[in-house]
## 1
Amino acid sequence: MQTKNPIRLVLASASPARRKLLQAAGIEPEVLVSGVDESIVTSESAEELCLQLARLKAQAVVGRLLPISDPQVLVLGCDSVLAFDGEILGKPADPADATRRWERMRGRSGVLHTGHCLIEVAGECRVEAVASTTVHFADVTDEEIAAYVGTGEPLAVAGAFTIDGLGGAFVERIEGDPGTVVGLSLPLLRGLLAELDLSVTDLWSRVAPGGQAVEPLT
């Protein structure tokens, strides 16, 4: 059944992976990059750090949208970090940093935390939460690390890896929601929407699967 007048969701992130994840779930977000300088935020807690950054990103985008006349606008900010060996790891500084990380991580495990902050702009309501997933890394070889770092993919993602790209071959298994590792947990988003008395179906912008034709993703 075709939904009517889907709520406008603005994604405060430049991440193509987050956008594709939403698109695959029938949600076509608008993208407005926050411009937040992530280096200015520090915390000893990985969960608190990713939530602070998600909140700052969402609030920055809300500030750019105001004043607004549309009563049905939501802004979603997300941020991910990896907790490993007592350290908080965001994106690597350079290829050498990414290589050192993989030499430490191979054959071991870490916890990927993704903070989510959802703001209902008109009502000035904010809900937020963190999703956490344990990631078990494969015992990759030096040659595999060098090849992977050489692609540039690890430099663009928290923890120097992703499961929805080349790095997926180097993750043996996860414990938790795969979307958390990609950068956005759909089940957690559904829960946040419920706190605002909304349903995830309110965001659907295309025909739901189940026999009907679904628009191809671009």
Note: Residues 46-65 form the longest helix (20 residues).
## 2
Amino acid sequence: MAHEKEKAIARQSMLIRSLPDQHIETLLSKAHWRHYDRGETLFLQDEDATAIHVVLDGWVKLFRMAPNGSEAVVSVFTRGESFGEAVALRATPYPVSAEAVTAAEVMHIPATVLTSIMKDDPQICITILASTFTHLHSLVEQLEQLKAQTGAQRVAEFLLHLCHVQEGPCEVILPYDKVLIAGRLGMKPESLSRAFARLKPAGVKIKKNHAVIDDVDTLRDYADSDPAESWSR
């Protein structure tokens, strides 16, 4: 049986938290819970998608391999985030591969369990659509940030998303490979390093794979400020 702490994290994921309690219990009771070591594969590109995945701890990357053998990181996911909904519900192959980039705890929900619930309670379909829309809205926000925010502001937003508190000091864990963060934020690794340096006056210190934030409100003010002001800092 899954640890109660892991269940609590799963309940807060975007996909699960909007479902009625009785369906949440069904999903949690039939889900598979697994630990992955750093570098371990969750699934490979072109494998049949049979499950929806929720990261409970650690970091997971989605990537594609180009014909020349180079790797293109599509996205990275961390605690409370889910992926694979669309392909699993359509029973189509994964368009990407997934790999744990740190030690990670992941919950796998069999797609058949969710589709069965949807057939029994069609109202759930609206919830799933809403969750999918939220994912899409998040992508739109990322595109908006690329055009309207400085690199340091995008990094600030990224850190705020990882914070588990709304005010006061906070410390978040980052993947050791900062290239993954840079790829998610549409930046080059050297630009990411400069962005971290620009965040020092906003109370952010990077210590190996930890970001220490002096005050969440101060960092939020920086992220929301006029980009012209941020460039001058």
Note: The mean pLDDT is 83.
## 3
Amino acid sequence: MVDGNRGSPAASVFDALGSDYERAFAASGAHRASLEWLLERFPPAGRVLDVGSGTGRPTAATLAAAGHRVLGVDVSPVMVEIASRQVPDAEFRCGDIREMPIEDGSFDAVCLYFALLQMSRAEQGGLLRRLTRVLRPGGLFALATVPLDVEGFDGVFMGQNVRVTSFAAQDVIGLVRDAGLTVLSEESVMFTPAHPDATPEPQLFLHCRREETAPAN
């Protein structure tokens, strides 16, 4: 389903990248290992929220193929159109996850792979708290980001101008814990996307569980 979200800086970047993004990150072993971690711990036919779902591969495709019910949300109409074609067994919506009505406690797991980087630090913290609340108590949370201590940094990503904000690794972990999540495992890797304009980037993968009570806003 495409509601339209054109005009967002993130939407413009990923509209332009389209399937090039999937190809650039297809070789990420850490991403696939993160999905395997989730699959080993899911209840049968679990309900999963995939935030920043992109082209639907590998996250939504892997989880839907294992029999899970996946809702993917992305700000890019182009990405949502591609994902809907590529992963017909999942549901995709175009919109800003910060504004989308989602019932608390309605998901068994949340995936948040590299979707924070074009938000302010305050927005990132707020979104993590919100996504923790949409998890059922004991639900799982997989997060990946680029752990750099930068705020409002103007750079180029795969030929696209981007403004990036992030945290150092220990500060990311602190943010996750403040949201009410327990970190069960973490992995730090270096990865170079398969794109002529890409450079090596550090990546942090966290696997977490929601505590029985999530913090309030």
Note: The first strand starts at residue 47 and ends at 51.
